[in-house]
Amino acid sequence: MRQYDAIFIGAGQAGPFLAARMAENGLKVALIERKFLGGTCVNAGCMPTKTLVASARAAHVARRAADFGVSVGREVSVDMSAVRKRAQTVTMDARKGLIEWLGGLNNLTIIYGHARFIAADTVVANGSELTAPRIFINVGARPVIPTFPGIEDVDYLTSASILEMDTLPRHLAVIGGSYIGLEFAQMYRRFGSEVTVLERGARLAPREDEDISSAIRDILAGEGIAVHTGVSEISFSRKGEDILLNADGTSRDVSHVLVATGRRPNTDDLGLETAGVETDARGYIQVNDRLETNVPGIWALGDCNGHGAFTHTSYNDFEIVAANLLDSEDRRVSSRVAAYALYIDPPLGRVGMTEKEARASGRNVVVSTRPMSRVGRAKERSETLGFMKVVADADTKEILGATILGIEGDEAIHGFIDAMTARTTFTDLQWAVPVHPTVSELIPTLLRGLS
Ligand SMILES: Cc1cc2nc3c(=O)[nH]c(=O)nc-3n(C[C@H](O)[C@H](O)[C@H](O)COP(=O)(O)OP(=O)(O)OC[C@H]3O[C@@H](n4cnc5c(N)ncnc54)[C@H](O)[C@@H]3O)c2cc1C
Ligand SMILES: NC(=O)c1ccc[n+]([C@@H]2O[C@H](COP(=O)([O-])OP(=O)(O)OC[C@H]3O[C@@H](n4cnc5c(N)ncnc54)[C@H](O)[C@@H]3O)[C@@H](O)[C@H]2O)c1
């Protein structure tokens, strides 16, 4: 039995940073990873996909070159092998950086293998038993594959396996019209594939407000993506080299299928029952506001605790636990302002409540919207699709949430993230003097629309 001060299971976007802090503080730490350091974000998530999104945007801009008075000479084509290589390079550089950094730390041992609890303070990995008074779980999540009839007979793709593609699909069907599905749908359309999106919900990105879902649909349909919502019965069969996709009685002959119907936590083969760690019905580890599980000495960070499904929320979990354990602070997950982006182009930047959530809260809600066609930066770049919207409490003047669907919306939303984190009222911001010509310059005008 090997004795440590702390054991980390999974090297995602929280564990390695906390492991490093502890090792630097002189604690003896084991970091167990069954695949690659950096987890989903580095190896099969944010980094490769945003690199691919950038390639797809380059193709899109090149096709629109004439709109800017620029000639590119001949028809734009995409070398999928070079596109894939570029994404792999970004991933490999990041992974290599982690291997060098973590591998060079004193007091930190990296163990490659699947870890499983055999007691509340003991795990087994690669046949060795390791014990520690503190165990941190950062095991992430994986794609959910619904039991569609015939799915096992076809070589469907997931968000991970599609990253290995180095040829262009003739026709890509995307099942699931949310973050993963929409990013890949637009990307492959821009690479040159025919793309069909099938979403079970009544609209795309069903968690967003209806006006946002509808604008997203317009953006994607405008690029020639076929969008079908409210789809309930999906089945598959083989048709020679192709796949016959049947959805609500309509058959489509497609060359590839991407299943992007959500993710589930990697908590089903972890021995959590043996350790006595509680999960909810969907397998998410139950934690309190300080990310402690019901078992003293065991914490859960990142996607597996169900309090966030993003790299920045996982990293913030690290910050919370590090502050509480190493810096004598009292940080809590409930003080986090929820924010994220959807990386279609133009992107969707989001923070806080949707309008629907704000109205359901029973507050006296005021809303202001402005189209991106009012933004100088958008006009100058000939990219005026989308709009911005802010939702506030008319009584307290609190900003409850904001959305920027439009060029640079993922960056401009940070004005709202910062304001909400600082609990600034909208009246304080209405007379800010922004820089011209930026996307953010319309924000004071947007806020003046609240009163
Ligand atoms: C296609 C895609 C695109 C995304 N894009 C974005 C984006 O643009 N922005 C964003 O914020 N988020 C994005 N995400 C989400 C983001 O990748 C995750 O939220 C982020 O990686 C945080 O995950 P984590 O720290 O919980 O664990 P992960 O990064 O998932 O890492 C968990 C690690 O644990 C390991 N592991 C699991 N079980 C065991 C075990 N029993 N023993 C040993 N090791 C184990 C796994 O191999 C893995 O390496 C995207 C996700 C996907 C799939
Ligand atoms: N930009 C980002 O930050 C980013 C990008 C990609 C992924 N992610 C993370 O990955 C997570 C998973 O993303 P996701 O898009 O797979 O999941 P999701 O849960 O966001 O969306 C899944 C979609 O599939 C639909 N769906 C479910 N079952 C279906 C069925 N049988 N037929 C048709 N449609 C069906 C759902 O209605 C939903 O719209 C997200 O929660 C997010 O945190 C983040």
Automatic annotation (TrEMBL):
PROSITE patterns found in the cross-reference section: PYRIDINE_REDOX_1 (PS00076)
Entry keyword set: Disulfide bond, FAD, Flavoprotein, NAD, NADP, Nucleotide-binding, Oxidoreductase, Redox-active center
Chain positions recorded as FAD binding sites: 50, 303
Signal peptide: none
A GO term for molecular function: NAD(P)H dehydrogenase (quinone) activity
Note accompanying the cofactor annotation: Binds 1 FAD per subunit.
Gene3D superfamilies: 3.30.390.30, FAD/NAD(P)-binding domain (3.50.50.60)
Active-site residues, record numbering mapped to chain: 436
InterPro entries documented for this protein: FAD/NAD-bd_sf (IPR036188), FAD/NAD-binding_dom (IPR023753), FAD/NAD-linked_Rdtase_dimer_sf (IPR016156), Pyr_nuc-diS_OxRdtase (IPR001100), Pyr_nucl-diS_OxRdtase_dimer (IPR004099), Pyr_OxRdtase_I_AS (IPR012999)
Keyword Transferase attached: no
Binding site residues for NAD(+): 176-183, 199, 262
Cofactor names: FAD
Disulfide bonds: 41-46
Pfam annotation, one family: Pyr_redox_dim
UniProt record similarity statement: Belongs to the class-I pyridine nucleotide-disulfide oxidoreductase family.
Protein known as: FAD-containing oxidoreductase
Annotated source species: Sinorhizobium mexicanum
